[in-house]
Amino acid sequence: MYISAEKNEENRRSTSARTGAEYPCGDSNHTGSVDNCTEPLQYRMYRSALPDPVANPESALHRQYHAGTAPLNGRTESSTDIFQTMADQGAVATAQRMLRHRLESSPRTALQLHGPQAIMQRKVALNTSLVGNNLKGLKVSSGGALGVVFIPDVVAKPEVDGQSAVDISTSINTVMGGVVDGGWSVSAPSARLAQVLEVAEIAKALNLRNQTKPGSVGDQNRVAAMVAALTTRPENVVIYEQAPGTDFVNHLADGALNNAAAKKQSKKGQPKTGSGLAQLADPGYARHLGRIAALDIFMGHRDRLHGAGNFENWMSDVRSRRLTLVDNDISNLSLANWSTHQDVQQLTNQQYPLLANTIVTEIDSLLNHQGYGGGKLGAKDLAVWQNTIRPVFQTCIEAGLQAGRLKLLQRGWGLVNALRVANSPLADRLEERLNHLHNG
Ligand SMILES: Nc1ncnc2c1ncn2[C@@H]1O[C@H](COP(=O)(O)OP(=O)(O)OP(=O)(O)O)[C@@H](O)[C@H]1O
Ligand SMILES: [Mg+2]
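^ thats the input. predicted complex w/ magnesium ion below
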């Protein structure tokens, strides 16, 4: 059954009345779930164990940001909710633990890789040794330039710099972790570096299956390219958790929920439930896209919602209301080169309406474009997008950009600390960008 945006808002308002929550952008029409958090006691424990990210504050405003009390065009994002601060601290603690002990997430040693457990194992998790029977359902993705290898329930991907890719996943989860809006949450897949031996096994298995049954592990040219990449840079292959749902291109093509009732076209002028358009029409989802755009601008990642749009680089799962960011990047641009981009300038200067307009224009052109993940909608769909969805969507993107910038300022310095503790080369780059975002 299609649930109208109004009904959703109504539901959210009643939830809001129970929790007393107010939407961060301060728009009274957007009451409802905010950047929620849970487990306050646990966060309190983290907090006492943590180096205080504001121990060396650049300014009083910095302190306010961290406490969630900084003015946001005259309003606060999530009031002075102490639990929110704890959630932020908790996210930072999580990043620190993950970064400090990243080696521990590696699978067993080479000796153990050949043990009977590895061969018998069925359920493949992030730390499962990827050998033998655990490589049952190998498939090279049809999407992406090079793409990934599906090893349900993880994927393998040759990256340019494997450790950076792992640290980027952790960084995204630190900034976006625990932020729930309209029931939707955002994360990056948890990640670890692959062992060279595992990579050799994956490449060997792909090759063998491709030869014995051509096409069975994906398009033959893509398989050959993947095997070549795995073989030439095994030390930079990253294993990611498999994200639930499908990428946004698929949702645009036929993303209805997998049951007959949901597939029925709902009221005239309304997108069908579960479709890509229904997602864009969902305020919580749309605001999250705004937050993601702020994150992409900060990261200098120009392959999703900033610069060139790409609908393949986020996945959504309608049932669990989870958005997962894939194919992430932090550009290695100097501060001077990064900060001259118009999007960066507008985010820094808090020119949210202008910036939202740029982002929505790019999304609109993708929706109409045959390539780059768009071009899946018919004329009727495009009219619904243009007339019904787009105006509200743009307001939500605006609010999301604002909330995203604030989240970066709340959690960014703690993240930089954690990256520094882990000797990650990303620390300096992110710190200078944060200072720029804060001071202009
Ligand atoms: N962790 C994941 N879980 C599920 N599916 C994934 C995951 N990572 C990637 N995919 C799927 O595989 C596709 C290709 O992956 P990705 O975007 O990372 O590769 P790519 O575009 O080839 O990357 P690059 O541009 O760095 O070569 C994605 O669009 C998505 O559909
Ligand atoms: Mg991609």
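The longest strand covers residues 154-158.
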